[in-house]
Amino acid sequence: MGIEILGLPMMYYIAMVAKVLVAFVFVLLTVAYATYAERKIIGHMQVRLGPMRTGWHGLLQPIADGVKLFFKEEIIPSQASTFAYLLAPLVALIPAFITFAVIPFGGVIEVAGYKIPLQIASYFDTAAGRVFDINVGVLYILAMSSLGVYGIVLAGWASNSKYSLLGGLRASAQMISYELSAGLAIVSVFMLSGTLSLNEIVAQQSAYNGFNWFAFKQPLAAIMFFICSLAEINRTPFDLPEAETELVSGFCTEYSSMKYAMFFMAEYANMVTVCALTTTLFLGGWNGPMAIAIPLLGPVYFVAKVYFLMFVCMWIRATLPRYRYDQLMHLGWKVLLPLSLLNIVATGIIGYFIN
Amino acid sequence: METLFFLIITLVAIVSALLVVTCKNPINSALALVMTFFCLATYYVMLDAPFMAAVQVMVYAGAIMVLIVFTIMLLNIRVDATKRHSHKVVLGSIIGFFTLVNTAFIIMRSRVAMPNGPLTGEMIRQQGHTELIGREMFTTFLLPFEITSILLLVAIIGAVILAKKKL
């Protein structure tokens, strides 16, 4: 491949940078327009119009919001613990984005004779003739999502305000308890797939009719994982950490300007990540009709499924009222956790008799 | 490439490890400790042990440190952080000095062991690190594994009994 840098072909670096940029821009744009879509969808569900003034049917609203937040005054509370206060928004935002490193968003495409798998942390080994990716992909995602809790805890504590602290405590307790059930729900997928590599999991779900999807083999796990993920990213009906009626704005009460925007972006980026992960694990990833024959169709299917799940998130937000805190804990520890354990046992028994 | 990467990570690890002991604010030192754990996880990845890396981040950075941060926050020992405890400096430096001598001794006398036996980097990459650990854990080391899980169960029940006033 012509020029080599540090033992790897030039094309490797170009492909890597291109993939990172594409995924990053995709998530950023999705985050921006998810806020718009959410307001529009909920508006229409409540027989309102939603944003209409900025641009055609309010299409420029996210840009206007961004500009507004950018030019707002930056306030740091005088009693805040400055380092943690400044660090918190970054810690919240970064795990949401770097999770995308392991999510496969398409098959293998060929550019100028060089095969590029559409997954950031992977490469095509020409000698072995297959794609190598990080073989603990799912664990990596779980690890990153467990780091996301720091952003919220730090924000809550460092602001030195009672609303923030209460919001932060609620959020972290909620995230820790639901992380467990989410992790256990995924275990039953591993038991079927026998691998932790996301690329491999997607490959096992490739069938034209879609009945190879793990959502059909593990319907309970799929539903539980989605519910737990909603709770983990603090979406309605589990948005107690930022319950406006009780806590003003929860852990980000004291934040203003771009720092507030970063928390906001983190929330939506987490939503994209969770939907992408659910798609990958349960809905067949980038698979779909003709996806293997025409590699460029893969990302299209992937994005369509992710957007559908995001629509479901917004739909839930428009439909369900918020849980009470004790109900939330009851659901997490006494319903979802035993159910996910039961699901693992059932999967094990059925798997034993089928094999 | 890998050496350069190793040096960068090591620099970050050393700086954050120093920050753990020098930070005045306990929360900041806890955060520095998280950073150190993260660097350790990176070492595991470079040593062809991705499973260890993921578990390192998940368990240490994600669970244990969250607990520590929680404790620091709820105890609210920020006021205490400005006090100086000079009497502990002597004891600390003696322990530190002997640890340094010990470490230096180990480094001088030992040599770098290359991977021997069937577990080479190539073989781990072929079979998968998680698969290898899982297989060993549920065949050769089944008894220790089960004993550990019983130990954890006992600890959980103990914690519940301690925390609950009325049973």
TrEMBL record, chain A:
<keyword id="KW-1133">Transmembrane helix</keyword>
<feature type="transmembrane region" description="Helical">
    <location>
        <begin position="82"/>
        <end position="105"/>
    </location>
</feature>
<feature type="transmembrane region" description="Helical">
    <location>
        <begin position="210"/>
        <end position="231"/>
    </location>
</feature>
<dbReference type="GO" id="GO:0009060">
    <property type="term" value="P:aerobic respiration"/>
</dbReference>
<feature type="transmembrane region" description="Helical">
    <location>
        <begin position="292"/>
        <end position="315"/>
    </location>
</feature>
<keyword id="KW-0830">Ubiquinone</keyword>
<dbReference type="GO" id="GO:0003954">
    <property type="term" value="F:NADH dehydrogenase activity"/>
</dbReference>
<keyword id="KW-0874">Quinone</keyword>
<keyword id="KW-0560">Oxidoreductase</keyword>
<keyword id="KW-1003">Cell membrane</keyword>
<keyword id="KW-0520">NAD</keyword>
<feature type="transmembrane region" description="Helical">
    <location>
        <begin position="268"/>
        <end position="286"/>
    </location>
</feature>
<comment type="function">
    <text>NDH-1 shuttles electrons from NADH, via FMN and iron-sulfur (Fe-S) centers, to quinones in the respiratory chain. The immediate electron acceptor for the enzyme in this species is believed to be ubiquinone. Couples the redox reaction to proton translocation (for every two electrons transferred, four hydrogen ions are translocated across the cytoplasmic membrane), and thus conserves the redox energy in a proton gradient. This subunit may bind ubiquinone.</text>
</comment>
<feature type="transmembrane region" description="Helical">
    <location>
        <begin position="12"/>
        <end position="36"/>
    </location>
</feature>
<dbReference type="InterPro" id="IPR001694">
    <property type="entry name" value="NADH_UbQ_OxRdtase_su1/FPO"/>
</dbReference>
<comment type="subunit">
    <text>NDH-1 is composed of 14 different subunits. Subunits NuoA, H, J, K, L, M, N constitute the membrane sector of the complex.</text>
</comment>
<dbReference type="InterPro" id="IPR018086">
    <property type="entry name" value="NADH_UbQ_OxRdtase_su1_CS"/>
</dbReference>
<feature type="transmembrane region" description="Helical">
    <location>
        <begin position="180"/>
        <end position="198"/>
    </location>
</feature>
<dbReference type="Pfam" id="PF00146">
    <property type="entry name" value="NADHdh"/>
</dbReference>
<protein>
    <recommendedName>
        <fullName>NADH-quinone oxidoreductase subunit H</fullName>
        <ecNumber>7.1.1.-</ecNumber>
    </recommendedName>
</protein>
<dbReference type="GO" id="GO:0016655">
    <property type="term" value="F:oxidoreductase activity, acting on NAD(P)H, quinone or similar compound as acceptor"/>
</dbReference>
<feature type="transmembrane region" description="Helical">
    <location>
        <begin position="335"/>
        <end position="354"/>
    </location>
</feature>
UniProtKB/TrEMBL annotation, chain B:
<feature type="transmembrane region" description="Helical">
    <location>
        <begin position="6"/>
        <end position="23"/>
    </location>
</feature>
<feature type="transmembrane region" description="Helical">
    <location>
        <begin position="141"/>
        <end position="163"/>
    </location>
</feature>
<dbReference type="Pfam" id="PF00499">
    <property type="entry name" value="Oxidored_q3"/>
</dbReference>
<feature type="transmembrane region" description="Helical">
    <location>
        <begin position="30"/>
        <end position="47"/>
    </location>
</feature>
<protein>
    <recommendedName>
        <fullName>NADH-quinone oxidoreductase subunit J</fullName>
        <ecNumber>7.1.1.-</ecNumber>
    </recommendedName>
</protein>
<keyword id="KW-0874">Quinone</keyword>
<keyword id="KW-0520">NAD</keyword>
<keyword id="KW-0472">Membrane</keyword>
<feature type="transmembrane region" description="Helical">
    <location>
        <begin position="89"/>
        <end position="108"/>
    </location>
</feature>
<dbReference type="InterPro" id="IPR042106">
    <property type="entry name" value="Nuo/plastoQ_OxRdtase_6_NuoJ"/>
</dbReference>
<dbReference type="GO" id="GO:0008137">
    <property type="term" value="F:NADH dehydrogenase (ubiquinone) activity"/>
</dbReference>
<dbReference type="GO" id="GO:0048038">
    <property type="term" value="F:quinone binding"/>
</dbReference>
<dbReference type="GO" id="GO:0005886">
    <property type="term" value="C:plasma membrane"/>
</dbReference>
<dbReference type="InterPro" id="IPR001457">
    <property type="entry name" value="NADH_UbQ/plastoQ_OxRdtase_su6"/>
</dbReference>
<keyword id="KW-1003">Cell membrane</keyword>
<feature type="transmembrane region" description="Helical">
    <location>
        <begin position="53"/>
        <end position="77"/>
    </location>
</feature>
<comment type="function">
    <text>NDH-1 shuttles electrons from NADH, via FMN and iron-sulfur (Fe-S) centers, to quinones in the respiratory chain. Couples the redox reaction to proton translocation (for every two electrons transferred, four hydrogen ions are translocated across the cytoplasmic membrane), and thus conserves the redox energy in a proton gradient.</text>
</comment>
<keyword id="KW-1133">Transmembrane helix</keyword>
<comment type="similarity">
    <text>Belongs to the complex I subunit 6 family.</text>
</comment>
<keyword id="KW-0812">Transmembrane</keyword>
